[in-house]
Amino acid sequence: MKKLLSCVLLIALSTNNSIAQDRITGEPFATRSEVLAQNGMVATSHPLATQIGLDILKKGGNAIDAAIAANAALGLMEPTGCGIGGDLFAMVWDAKTKKLYGLNASGRSPKELTLAYFEKKNMEKIPSHGPLPVSVPGAVDGWFELHKKFGSKPMSEILTPAINYAEKGFPLTELIAWYLNRSVPFYESKGFPNIKDTYINQNGGKLPQEGEIYKNPYLANTYKKIAQGGRDVFYKGEIAKVIGKFIKEEGGFLSAKDLAAHKSEWVEPVSVNYRGYDVWELPPNGQGIAALQMLQILKGYDFKNIAFGSPEHLHLFTEAKKLAFEDRAKYYADMDFFKVPVETLLSDTYAQERRSKIGERAGKYTAGKISAGETIYMTVADKEGNMISLIQSNYRGMGSGMVPPKLGFMLQDRGELFSLKKGQANTYAPRKRPFHTIIPAFITKDGKPFVSFGVMGGDFQPMGHTQIVMNLIDFGMNLQEAGDAPRFDHTGGASPMGGITSDTGMIRTESGIPYSTLRGLMDKGHRIGTARGIYGGYQAIMWDDKNKVFHGASESRKDGQAAGY
For 539-552, what is the mean pLDDT? Predict the structure, then answer.
């Protein structure tokens, strides 16, 4: 009898595990209150990185200085999600000009690697690891572009906190320790060089666990060289030579010349108006406009009469996602190589035409006819009103497995995201930027900054952005509740890497979505599943222009923190 009662209790608890506490105010799924401050706010996926950014603000630095310092720290403290071997995208609200600026700091493919090479090898896709998917890492140039245009403190001062932590060490947090202890042994098992020397030998011959001290003196030395020699030491100096020599030895194509030719690009953010709020994303090669396409479709429905988490909510969201992602697969690519019809894709007329295809049951769609992987996200705001929305990643967690000797970081594997099928928008070509999953977001209201935010997680990111916007605007949640609300995604359909749509895909939900909703979705012909750890990591800062107060929120699914002063 006791055993039976225990089982009943366990089942009861497991069916309600989205609510772990009884909060006095707000939504029951909220994990904590928003952080409120008047002078500045930093939100990152690691508490120590947040504190570094906050210290920079308190010492007179601006939001851009603090963001670079925090990002450098995250490259050390969360190597499972980012680092200077990867790319960077950012949007900056400049208080002086009252304008939003966009930076695409993604790198290009090697000049000497051609589509013919893959065809000769009979390869249908670019491998996920090893030297072939390595493209030029754009993050460091992104830092210096941001700093040149908006920074105030010297880079030597900005990078000092990360250098000190890399030399002296810091305790690994729970989630990052879990990922690190899964990732490093995986790369070791593949026989990739310099993994043990970089991540294990520098820590006494044992990979640290949660709460144990982790160091990376190689990265400290690399940061020192960047602080002293600027971006050129990375792209034209000794670091570039080490990377080029190492990749060639491993059978790859990325060269020192490829790094020397790299430059970031300042781009104009694009937007749609969603119920009076302007939602901003960066244009391709990223996937940000997929969120805007989804919002354009969804604004045709009255969500005042559709409850959050209801079958109708998830059904309409999923069908909008399917339609947008078919276009994503066909049209999104490096705009230096393909004329992406951004204006048409975001138009009201096109959204109305796509919306008309949505019925009461799960549908299967194709792209509209138009003439034509783990990440970190962070955001910072300062007392002058500057705000930065920044996302940075190596893809597939730590990246390609390619760790140049004694530099302290792994190179990204973004090149995997090219298609090897001829004639597509995202087909591989030399010196081309691959289709990119990482996207920062921003919302303005009446020409003033409102919310700087992002959600990590590969293909989930446009879906995550759309969910946050709807949670805030349609469902009236506060900034923390909007991130804590149970999430869901849809998998399946065409992809920019050449995948085609074979069925209606699958909706995957977090445990906070009730079974009654899942049952309703099954009645509409949807397949239902679950997934672990794919719902990204959210950070956000909201500006209350009436009270002149920042609201900060951080992801409860990660180790991070929002803090202000």
Answer: 98
